[in-house]
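Subject: Interface between my chains keeps coming out wrong

I've been trying for a while to get a sensible model of this assembly. When I model each chain on its own everything looks fine, but I need the whole thing in one frame so I can look at the contacts. Pasting all components below, labels as-is. Any help appreciated, I'm running out of ideas.
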Amino acid sequence: MHFDAFDRYHEKESILHRLDPRVKVVVTVLFIVSNALLPDGAWLAFALAWMFVLASNLLSKLGLGYTFKRSIIALPFALIAITVLFSIPGNPLTTFRLFVWDFTITDAGLLRFVSILIRAWLSVQMAILLVAVTRFPDLVHALEHLRVPAILTTIIAFLYRYLFVLTDEVFRLLRARQARSAAAPGSRSGGGVVWRAKVAGNMAGQLFLRSYERSDRIYNAMVARGYVGHLYTLNPHEMKSGDYYATAFAIAAIFLMQVLGRL
Amino acid sequence: MLYAPTPLHIPDGFLNLIVSLICWAITIVTLGFAISKTNKALGEKQIPLMGVMAAFIFAAQMINFPVAGGTSGHMLGGALAAIVLGPWAGMLVMTAVIAVQALLFQDGGLLVMGANILNMGLVTAAIGYGLYRSVIGQSKGVKLGMIGFAAWLSVMAGALLTSLQLWLSGTSQLEIVIPAMMGVHALIGIGEALITVFAVGFIMQTRPDLLGEGSESAKASRNWVYVGGIVALLVVLISPFASGDPDGLERVAIDMGFIGTGLDAPYEIIPDYTVPFLGETALSTIVAGVIGAIVVGAIIVLVGRGMKAKS
Amino acid sequence: MPVTHLNSSFAPPECDGEVLSVNDLQFAYPDGHVALKGISFTLCQGDKVALVGPNGAGKSTLMLHLNGILNGHGMIDVAGKRLTRDNLPAIRAMVGLVFQNPDDQLFSPTVFEDVAFGPLHMGLSEPEVRARVDSALEAVRMSAYRDRLSHHLSVGEKKRIAIATVLSMNPSLLVLDEPSAGLDPRARRTLIHLLRDLPITMLVSTHDMKLVEELFPRTIVMDEGQIVADGPTCDILEDEALLSAHGLEKP
Amino acid sequence: MPVTHLNSSFAPPECDGEVLSVNDLQFAYPDGHVALKGISFTLCQGDKVALVGPNGAGKSTLMLHLNGILNGHGMIDVAGKRLTRDNLPAIRAMVGLVFQNPDDQLFSPTVFEDVAFGPLHMGLSEPEVRARVDSALEAVRMSAYRDRLSHHLSVGEKKRIAIATVLSMNPSLLVLDEPSAGLDPRARRTLIHLLRDLPITMLVSTHDMKLVEELFPRTIVMDEGQIVADGPTCDILEDEALLSAHGLEKP
Ligand SMILES: Nc1ncnc2c1ncn2[C@@H]1O[C@H](COP(=O)(O)OP(=O)(O)OP(=O)(O)O)[C@@H](O)[C@H]1O
Ligand SMILES: Nc1ncnc2c1ncn2[C@@H]1O[C@H](COP(=O)(O)OP(=O)(O)OP(=O)(O)O)[C@@H](O)[C@H]1O
Ligand SMILES: [Mg+2]
Ligand SMILES: [Mg+2]
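Reply #2:
Try treating it as a single job with all components included. I did that and got this:
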């Protein structure tokens, strides 16, 4: 059994795929920060940001709607923001009654709500695109170059590698449980909630032990190849002229959004 | 669903810049401590151990159990990570997990990652470890009971912090978000508590040596008990105020110096979601001009480098 | 492309009660990979059948269908009962599935708890559960291991406990995925004796052609999601062309 | 008690340069379990030797000693160099150890990084590292996999990359722990050809007696922490009493 469902990278030949991962990380973060800075109702800037996302989609050769389709992931969280519809003072738009309470939607509330959603939606699309055009190990290298402490990037690299091994293991455990979740004729299947939680807890404990012992074996494998507490890597990336131009262009575009948003 | 996003992973866009940056600042300082502590205290063996443990926490979050009506319980793992690895390593492991969830699955944003790490990684580990340390040397039953309470409370604390951040950002209304989040997470926390208790019980039964009870000095241990206890106390004190009487929370918050006094609505710390220095004053025009110049300068430098680099 | 050998189709001599019948089973994984392309076969009461084929042939995928963990298109009947969502729990009580890696099967801290999981989940009474556990451990000759921690057992011991975990459910059909992998010759020999002596219908996937030759009168060969041969083991092991076309070897 | 068969002690015909010599090696795990009880043997330049024995015999424990991951009492010399704390790095560059499970060995996200790990830690220059990686991948015929992600590979492919990770260190001695476990017949065959063609001294532990017969002129039998026989494979495989006393079987 092979669990590759977690890979978000999409193999393609495109300018964005070839761009240095550092550039992609920096531009994505700048874009998300810029979104957070845009005032409510900066429609022109939102539109420009959206164009930026669409253009990136096109450049990535993944298709214009690629990130759009996957961006619904942030939507459920919108429930949390729904209260701003009623709570911000402004001109009432409509009032409706739910059970015993009256709710009044104000224009300022609506503006805030829509703006929050747009910001989230634009940001999440950019993040989706980042991992679709950058292989995860390259992303980790970029973080290393951007001065994220080595201990964290190393943990992340191991996490990524063993994510697949251990989730495979979890799925096989879950499967084993499922396979024996039977019912005798005429009786209700399954024990109480606490018993079921105990089974899940035992699985977690079992998985912990195996992970722990695996880490021992990995350590042995590392030592066998000369590891003495320090990790060395080759730098596989080099900034080319195109990378600098792309960064310059993206910064200009993001600055333009900020200016437009405040006009 | 292979991978169920929990309501604690805040996406980008739901916290404003200032709150995001404050959370990042707290997170970075804490992580800085954690890194220097782990670098000092632990051998070379710790690198693969923490990496695989991070993968373990990630995978363990997928172990669920049917509760009722098609819903299922699963766990966050912050308390478990801290109990089995110690607080600092536990925090680093949780940070890696949250970072990968955000980077790879967009479960939680990038700019708000500082907040997410704070809520789900740092506070949960501190509470989990602190409360667990307070019962070291007691009987197994007492230990497991306290572990369950700690796990439950760690989820509640995460939910409380998330609610406060959303409120400070002007995204949610306090008197709605707190009862909603705390209510939901009181239930989620029970799942967390059960799985954590049974998982630690399993380890106590099979490899008690891994729980390393004697590993820390008495003083460090006592400090963690204080940290855990204080955070726990805060959560217990704040949540009923918050859910029952929002004005009460404001009073508590102000008394404790949480926020400056005299604010009409607390989320107007950053009025209207704009950054203060870009108002309609002469000063802001100058600032805007300077920023513009910096941006243009950066672009020129980059283009210059681009011409120099070989293509 | 799998080469289908029609001449080796095979009519079982006599069949006193069908235990399993699979009809035109098709399945694609969520990522679009078509793993089963129309599988049909039947198992009779008491049959012991080997399922062989190269890595990725779809053997494990097929086995996961037999007690409804995966569900593709097509029909599966176990002891005359159609496999549907409604009688899934009943089917699971009849089909005992043992995974390749015993570590996947054993998730509880002690042997007893693991063997008791199935019966407990079936809602049996406590004395009944204890009786089932005892007789299952007896059958794999591991009664002395009742209270041991699963974690500390050797691979061969784990394998036997894994079989006990499904025997305790009194299955009518035992489905084993690569039972001999990773065993030393002695443990493998013990396993062979154990399987030979168990009076249950079984379908066993394996890469161990020697095991196939020794233990199973009938063999099904799968490749690329299809059954490419089904017949008496002796005939199949003689067919060099068939074996080499599907990455197999004569023992 | 292991039965020691002194008559099968064995003087190698000729030896042009000892690559490995182990003398009275003893080891106990921290929990007190004595896993090695005085092991002595030598390997000559170009020898390909099988190490067999039942589960728990101490094969893996012995292998972990050969490049100093564990250290018991006794003497180990690799190419004339005594294994001590001081020349551990030099010894590790000479002894390439491949673990049974390739998932334990391939800990980097990409194939390139994994194969480069050893040379990088030896402090080689960047062009040298790249050249080593290329020739190691060439040797296991996996050059096309350089930039692949490790977790996407099949078991057979992972196994080959695991061998490449130590070949890149130009070892004088290759130590493989159960290389054929879990491979299907085709992948197993490919591995056999690969091992046959590698011109390096190797010590290989395995449960696969057929592999022993096909590939190794000399066999060492271990049981309960001792060497109970060491001699030409053909002699050992004929000695029924020896084999059955140590849970082994003729292929
Ligand atoms: N979860 C999954 N998602 C997508 N494809 C899968 C998944 N599991 C298996 N596959 C693919 O389905 C095919 C059949 O896999 P299966 O595990 O049934 O093979 P198998 O015959 O059991 O092989 P092996 O002998 O290696 O165990 C393979 O090509 C495999 O890559
Ligand atoms: N970390 C450990 N602590 C204590 N005992 C151990 C440890 N690892 C192995 N042992 C014990 O040492 C003995 C030798 O183990 P070893 O792994 O070397 O056997 P092996 O010959 O490789 O067996 P297999 O064929 O199953 O791989 C066994 O009895 C085993 O239980
Ligand atoms: Mg399979
Ligand atoms: Mg071994």
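Reply #3:
Confirming on my end. Chain C has a mean pLDDT of 87.
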